[in-house]
Amino acid sequence: MTYVTEVVDFFLARFPGVALLDPTDYTILAEWEKQEIPLDLVLKSIADAHTDLQNNSGEIKSLADCHARVKVNFREWLKHNRKSE
Question: Could you give the CA distance from residue 79 to residue 28 in angstroms, rounded to a whole number?
Answer without folding.
Answer: 22
